[in-house]
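Hey, resending since the last one bounced:
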Amino acid sequence: MSEQEAILKVKDLKTHFDVTKGLFAPKQIVKAVDGVSFEIKPNETFGLVGESGCGKSTLGRTIVKLYDPVSGSIEFNGKDISKLKGEELKTFRKEMQMIFQDPYASLNPRMTVGEIIKEPMIIHNIYKTDAEREARVVELLEIVGLKPDHIRRYPSEFSGGQRQRIGIARALAVNPKFIVCDEAISALDVSIQAQVINLLKNIQRKMGLSYLFIAHDLSMVKHISDTIGVMYLGHMMECGPSNDVYHRPLHPYTVALLSAIPIPDPDISKAKSRIVLEGEIPSPINPPKGCPFSTRCSKATERCRNEMPQPVQVGNRQVSCFLYEK
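The structure tokens again:
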């Protein structure tokens, strides 16, 4: 694979859930991810942002095959993994791992730290002896900033930030090439968030990893990401280089999101005008007929309310908005 060729290609991916209640009730389908396409290159971090319920986490879980898509393709290292099952799926899981949002719920409280990190090695038959595995666990603990003697302790003996470091060590245990960080810092204090972000960046440089980094905080996403994708109601609204999206947003939804970022300087904050979106996010069970953002967009036209915009190329970015049609 060439250096510039994408390690992950997601094309028109759809993940829907049947939430029909009762045998004779009308069918209800939640369109959590509804036609998303993007690419991630080797050693790149793709930041995925959007409001709660927009489908970010579902997209991440679909990519690592915790959920099955209803259509579309997920191409990893040149191979479509969207329909993998059984032994093929197990082999693939060595290449792609996940760091979960809640460091308290994602670790088994009855297992020691050593057992938690060793478990993936045993499942995938990595290293021949238990002594080799234990040596690797100690090495991973040091990489994530924990002490070797933590190997005998239980998750309840650690803080939230330390638990997330254990989760990172577990993800690294099988030497993956790609990691999905699903809101990996949202449950942590702000000072700890910065430490974990810096840790992830250092690990990426040393190990040549690619990340899909899912988060709410746009300023934090800009700090770690090379590319940013903005999701709304299961659709990708805008996607492009981090600096361009952050400093020159194109889609009205991206503009509104960025206007809500708090600024520590009170003088600059007063001069800045925040865009307050009216109304609620529509239900993914009954989305709008046209553009999903049309019900809250100040620039929406009749066409927006009746027709779904297709992604258009604007310089080095893709934007799903009729404002940028040529």
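The chain has a mean pLDDT of 90.

Sorry for the duplicate.
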